[in-house]
Design goal:
There is one protein chain. The chain is α/β, with parallel strands linked by helices and about 350 residues long. It folds into two domains: about 1-175, Peroxisomal Thiolase, Chain A, domain 1 (3-Layer(aba) Sandwich); about 200-210 and about 235-355, Thiolase/Chalcone synthase (Peroxisomal Thiolase, Chain A, domain 1), CATH 3.40.47.10. It is built from nine helices and eleven strands. The strands form two sheets. A nine-stranded mixed β-sheet has the order 5-4-6-7-1-8-11-10-9, sandwiched between helices. It has a two-stranded antiparallel sheet with strand order 2-3. Strand 4, helix 4 (about 90-100) and strand 5 (about 105-110) form a beta-alpha-beta unit. The two termini are about 20 Å apart.
Length: about 350
């Protein structure tokens, strides 16, 4: 059985906020916001529109059209985006299925914060290989920018949060995985020209000691929402111990990124020397360049830095793929690693053989 991505779609709202505006509101120098934090601008949602399901449907319709798949042909819909969505304790996946007209699909959700895209592909591949289903739609959206308080310097690493959505159509085909190369510089395609990429193996690891380092103080069962919590401004994201988090995260983050990338490559039958492109979670510019350099890649050509989007939770990997194609950095025959991390802290990777 071969599993491939046959369609891809992204969506970002039309409204933007510039790095200059973030600097003015936060008091952080513009050069730091734009150059160090890596935010020239980011897309944000209006208060009364572009909710998680709205953006997911836009991206999903684009992906379905790209794949030539009708909503009624879907067997599975997985929402792997932000839990900050239209309503709390609520299935965005079910609402998306209904709005798309995916009457034959069951809908479920997978949540690994910003590490979600590689893990959602890992889960979908496993299901398609083992269950009597053929076609899945993976959707994600985020507008967590709403939860950022620019007056809270302790949460400044989240000032890059932007809004948007992504979708992948993932299908299964009978037979062994395609040969990596057909002799003409492109991977053979078991989907007869409809596939963008073959989904290879994945890896992930978690260090749960970071579980309480990024929280929204109120709104959960420990401190339910009330007039008091609203007055105290406890419904935005906070970092209770920013210095302690940085001190503990610094020595483990890069090794964890490299570890999951290496493990996913090894499970797929490859190593770093085979890697051509990395679709990486948005992070400060210097660390983005360090990760790619450690993997033996050139940050200027073998990845895409999302400084016109910021960090859009588990949408980042699809945005980096789309911009890689648009800028001719990602080409048919390339070996790709989707590489991500989410607070908690989980690092994840999935390898793709890109077909174009």
């Amino acid at each position: 059985m071969t599993v491939g991505i046959t369609g891809m779609g992204t969506y970002v709202p039309g409204e933007t906020v510039s790095g200059e505006a973030i600097a003015a509101e936060s008091g952080i120098p513009e050069e730091v916001v734009v150059e160090k934090m890596g935010v020239r601008e980011k897309h944000v949602c209006p208060p009364d529109g572009d909710h998680a399901t709205d953006m997911s449907v836009e991206a999903a319709e684009a992906a379905l059209a790209d794949a030539g798949v009708e909503p009624a042909d879907l067997d599975l819909i997985v929402y792997h985006g932000s839990e900050y969505k239209d309503h709390v304790v609520w299935s965005a996946a079910a609402a998306i299925a209904d709005r798309l007209g995916a009457t034959n699909a069951y809908a479920t959700e997978s949540y690994t914060l910003c590490a979600g895209a590689p893990i959602a592909l890992r889960q979908a591949r496993a299901q398609l290989e083992t269950e009597p289903i053929e076609t899945a739609l993976l959707v994600a959206a985020s507008r967590e920018e709403d939860l950022v308080d620019y007056a809270n310097e302790d949460s400044s690493f989240m000032f890059n949060f932007g809004s948007g959505a992504s979708a992948f159509v993932v299908e299964a085909a009978d037979g062994d995985p395609a040969d990596p190369d057909d002799g003409e510089g492109t991977a053979a395609d078991p989907f007869e020209g409809r596939s963008r990429a073959i989904v290879e193996a994945s890896a992930a690891e978690t260090d749960g000691s970071f579980a309480d380092d990024v929280v929204m103080p109120a709104g959960g069962s420990k401190r339910p929402p009330s007039a008091e919590t609203v007055r105290e401004g406890l419904h935005t994201l906070d970092v209770p111990d920013p210095d302690g988090m940085k001190e503990r995260l610094a020595p483990v983050s890069l090794p964890a990124y490299l570890s999951v990338a290496d493990e996913a490559l090894d499970r797929s039958g490859f190593d770093r020397d085979d890697l051509d492109y990395v679709a990486l979670t948005h992070m400060k510019r210097s660390f983005h360049e360090r990760v790619l350099d450690e993997l033996g890649l050139d940050p200027a050509s073998d990845g895409y830095y999302l400084d016109e989007f910021g960090h859009v939770q588990s949408v980042d990997q699809a945005l980096a793929l789309a911009r890689g194609v648009e800028t001719d950095r990602l080409e048919a025959g390339d070996l790709v690693c989707l590489l991500a991390a989410g607070t908690g802290y989980t690092w994840s990777a999935t390898v793709l053989r890109w077909l174009g």
